[in-house]
């Protein structure tokens, strides 16, 4: 990846799970400097590497003072800041708008006059375009029809962010490339990271780290319905590779799925994790989530493979094993982040 040697990069949301892994990869590829901007709403400062080439700004990219400090000095911008995730956005749509969409609009408006920038990679969401079905799923293509019926403000914000990416490319030639994520998992995702956001999803944020933590504790894994819902699980190191390929090979104005292309049921995920950890706690079946109509989905990988030379390399069992090992090694950090929300969790549960 010679294009990243001595390059300068801005990573918004760079203290987050994906962002932290991306920053470390950029440093391994000999980037000259990486500027991380993160308000630590759903992230921890420990995720930012202690490296002389890294500059950290604590604040939202939507903050005018932070924006005023940005200069036309970046070769690449990776826009990963987000309001984490569906359930938090349902609880507080205004915060989702401020942290998930306004961030995108203000960053694009600031960057539209930059001359040095080669690519600005926007992190989209596969859930915003996937067909709402509990029947047989088909691989979601990049040009799949978009429904007006969205399951959450998060999905709305993510797809409108794509609209702005296309608009700013068409109108201002801002070289935006949209990277459409599937369900990312892997080392570095800290349960309970950041500040309280009003619901237990602040702690139990994504299915994979939640299952791994509970499985290591010998607890039953909570599965909605009968676990028939399916997702496309992609390892974080593969996502990072995909982001870099979007930056180097992506066509400005275009969109690429970053997916494994493999459909895995949530029940299968739970059973696999329990088998890998030796958990005897089994599965606890719960009612369907009333807001989630995206029962089965996975992404098409053909366009990304053909046009940006990206193909996920990590099999699910291998990625889960690596994530389980990381969780074991970082249990003290994870539990300190979980327990910082204990008082608020008690109030919600009472």
Give me the side-by-side strand order of the main sheet: 3-2-1-4-5-6-11
Largest sheet: 7 strands, parallel
Q: Which structural class best describes the helix and strand composition?
A: alpha/beta
Q: Outline, from the CA principal axes?
A: globular
- The percentage helix is 25-40%
Q: Uncertain runs with pLDDT below 50, 5 residues or more?
A: none
Mean pLDDT: 96
What is the number of strand segments? 13
What's a quick, concise take on this entry?
Helices cover 39% and strands 16% of the residues. With 350 residues, the chain is α/β, with parallel strands linked by helices. The strands form 4 sheets. Strands 3-2-1-4-5-6-11 form a 7-stranded parallel sheet, with helices on both faces. Strands 7-10 form a two-stranded parallel sheet. A two-stranded parallel ribbon has the order 8-13.
Plain-language structure description:
The chain has 350 residues and is an alpha/beta fold. The protein contains 12 helices and 13 strands. The strands form 4 sheets. Strands 3-2-1-4-5-6-11 form a 7-stranded parallel sheet, with helices on both faces. Helix 1 links the parallel strand 1 (8-12) and strand 2 (33-38). The longest helix has 20 residues, at 153-172. The protein is globular, with a radius of gyration of 19 Å. The mean pLDDT is 96.
Defining traits:
350 residues; alpha/beta; 7-stranded parallel β-sheet; two-stranded parallel ribbon; 12 helices; 13 strands
Strand and helix layout:
Blueprint: E1 8-12, H1 17-28, E2 33-38, E3 54-58, H2 64-68, E4 76-79, H3 86-91, H4 93-111, E5 119-125, H5 153-172, E6 176-181, E7 183-185, H6 207-216, E8 221-224, E9 230-231, E10 233-235, H7 236-249, E11 255-258, E12 264-265, H8 266-277, E13 283-286, H9 302-307, H10 316-329, H11 331-339, H12 342-349
Parallel strand pairs: 1-2, 1-4, 2-3, 4-5, 5-6, 6-11, 7-10, 8-13
Antiparallel strand pairs: 9-12
Helix pairs in contact: 1-7, 4-5, 6-8, 6-10, 8-10
């Amino acid at each position: 990846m010679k294009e990243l040697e001595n390059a300068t990069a801005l990573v918004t949301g760079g203290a987050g799970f994906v962002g932290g892994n991306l920053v470390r990869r950029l440093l391994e590829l000999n980037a000259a400097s990486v500027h991380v901007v993160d308000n630590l709403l759903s992230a921890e400062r420990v995720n930012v590497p202690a490296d002389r080439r890294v500059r950290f700004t604590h604040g939202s990219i939507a903050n005018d003072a932070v924006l005023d400090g940005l200069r036309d000095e970046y070769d690449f911008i990776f826009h990963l800041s987000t309001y984490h995730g569906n359930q938090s956005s349902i609880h507080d749509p205004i915060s989702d708008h401020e942290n998930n969409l306004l961030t995108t609009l203000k960053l694009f408006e600031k960057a539209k006059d930059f001359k040095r920038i080669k690519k600005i990679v926007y992190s989209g969401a596969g859930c915003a375009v996937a067909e709402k079905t509990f029947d047989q799923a088909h691989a979601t293509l990049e040009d799949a029809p978009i429904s007006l019926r969205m399951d959450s403000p998060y999905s709305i914000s993510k797809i409108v962010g794509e609209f702005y990416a296309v608009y700013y490319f068409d109108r201002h030639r801002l070289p935006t490339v949209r990277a459409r994520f599937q369900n990312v998992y892997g080392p570095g995702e800290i349960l309970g990271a950041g500040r309280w956001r009003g619901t237990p999803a602040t702690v139990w944020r994504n299915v994979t780290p939640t299952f791994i933590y509970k499985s290591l504790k010998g607890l039953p894994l909570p599965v909605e319905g009968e676990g028939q819902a399916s997702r496309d699980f992609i390892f974080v190191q593969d996502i990072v590779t995909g982001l870099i390929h979007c930056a180097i090979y992506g066509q400005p104005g275009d969109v690429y799925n970053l997916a494994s292309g493999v459909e895995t049921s949530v029940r299968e995920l739970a059973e696999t994790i329990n088998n890998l950890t030796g958990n005897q706690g089994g599965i606890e079946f719960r009612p369907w989530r009333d807001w989630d109509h995206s029962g089965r989905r996975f992404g098409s990988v053909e366009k990304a493979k053909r046009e940006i030379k990206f193909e996920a390399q990590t099999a699910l069992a291998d990625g889960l094993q690596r994530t389980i090992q990381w969780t074991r090694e970082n249990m003290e950090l994870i539990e300190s982040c979980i327990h910082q929300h204990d008082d608020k969790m008690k109030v919600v549960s009472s």
